[in-house]
Amino acid sequence: MSLLEVGSKITPRSWKESKSAWLWGVAFGFLLLGALIIGATVVLTPTPGGDVRTGVAVADNNQANRDPGTSRRTAIVQAAERIGPAVVTISVVQTRLVQSVPFGSDFFEPFFRDMIPSYRYREQIPGMGSGFIISQKGYVLTNEHVVRGAEKITVILADGRSFTGKVVGSQPQYDVAIVKIEGEKLPVATLGSSGDLMVGEWAIAIGNPFGFLLNDTQPTVTAGVISATHRDIKAEAASGGIYKNMIQTDAAINPGNSGGPLVNAQGEVIGVNTFIFTKSGGSEGIGFAIPIDAAKRVVDELIRYGKVRNVWIGVGTWDITPYLAERIGTNDRNGLYVASLEKGSPADKAGVKIGDIIRKVNGTPVGDVNEAYRALFGANVGDTITLTVERDGKSATRRLVLQELPE
After folding, report:
1. Could you tell me which of 377, 389, 382 has the C-alpha nearest to residue 315?
2. Domain at 340, CATH number
3. How far apart are CA 256 and CA 212, in angstroms?
4. Catalytic site residue 51?
5. Tell me: the pLDDT tens digits for 44-60?
6. CA atoms within a 13 Å half-sphere pointing along the CA-CB vector of 44
7. What sequence ranges are listed for the domain PDZ (predicted)?
8. Residue 161 burial by CB count (10 A; 0-12/13-18/19+): exposed, middle or buried?
9. Helix (H, G, I), strand (E, B) or coil at 295
10. Beta strands in 103-234 (DSSP E)
């Protein structure tokens, strides 16, 4: 019997074995199909915070990817959100007197000045700066040069509200002014301290640069670092004010930023943005802000008295000229010669005498009256200062309490 024939014959016993094998095969197929379905369910069901493809938990990374706002809320963002509502736009109208000559007579004016009639007229000039609200009573801190000569002041909040402002006190030498507005539920900026600033820490300038070109009340935010502290600006570059211990920053400060706050990473005001050094007229990364600690002392005086009270020492001094140096027998021309002394004055009470030479004021060497004045900058009535005086070739330190200048 051939193999084919054997294979083609089905005996009763071989049928039973084939049927059993077939049933086991069907059962195994169902089991395999069930396993595949269960496996597919496990693979395709994402775990909490997991990967849909693998089911492996990667909650930290994917949560950040699904919610990018969490990782983008930097300290700068939070600081801007905290202070931004209290930053205001200060719009002013100033009037200046203009003298003009008839058209076409400019060329002849130098030659026939007395013969060519001229006329004068008042011209209204709009200006704009920044400021920030420091009290629920409506006090707004800004630079004095922002509101100087203003006949009309409008204060615009970030939320769009607009108020008429009034200057309640200003001090050109400190370049600080306080504007008062009447409003309810005013946002107030948090004032920090400028006494412990670190070079390299975040500095955020907030204000309204070129605000007259933008139809928007929201302030602009620029960020940089504290570039330097305790910067003294030379008198010839100061345009009339005295700028000592200034904060230097590379955060962009442009026209219109003046009077706005310089803020740290905690959202606290650390300075008042004031001016920049520039050749182009725009920001070149060298901006300066008045330290908030100094500004707060001026603000307190302005709110209480409407001015910064002049301090009184009670001495009259001369610069040490070559002639005077020869007469008093000194080769050192640095210092101030005490030529007069008011009885009962702080200097008199401290033991200063006529003929003394004041060499230092608060530890700062002084060569003339202007340097002495700058050394006293920031001192208020009630403060204690030191004078280093020379008498008969011997040096001594005199401590005196400043009083208000008598009327």
Report:
1. 389
2. 2.30.42.10
3. 9
4. no
5. 333 333 333 333 334 44
6. 6
7. 335-393
8. middle
9. helix
10. 119-133, 139-142, 150-156, 162-164, 166-171, 176-180, 202-207, 220-231
Q: How many residues does the chain have?
A: 407
Catalytic choice (145, 194, 227, 250): 145
| Cα 388 from Cα 390, distance rounded (Å) | 7
18 is catalytic: no
CATH of the domain at 106: 2.40.10.10
Alpha-carbon distances of 42 from 56, 58, 62, 225, rounded to whole Å: 11, 16, 19, 52
Q: In DSSP terms, which residues pair with 395 in a beta bridge?
A: 390
State the catalytic residue, choosing from 258, 283, 293, 356.
Answer: 258
In a domain, 219, yes or no: yes
pTM: 0.71
Same domain, yes or no: 282 and 222: yes
175 is catalytic: yes
Residue 193 lies in a domain: no
Digit-coded pLDDT (tens) for 81-122 = 999 999 999 999 987 777 665 545 555 555 555 555 666 767
Q: What is the pLDDT of residues 144-187, one digit of tens each?
A: 999 998 999 999 999 999 999 999 999 998 999 999 999 999 99
Segments forming the whole domain that contains residue 258: 202-295
- Residue 123: predicted pLDDT: 75
Q: Is the pLDDT of residue 67 over 80?
A: no
Enter the tokens of residue 218.
């929201």
What pLDDT is stored for residue 89 in this prediction?
A: 94
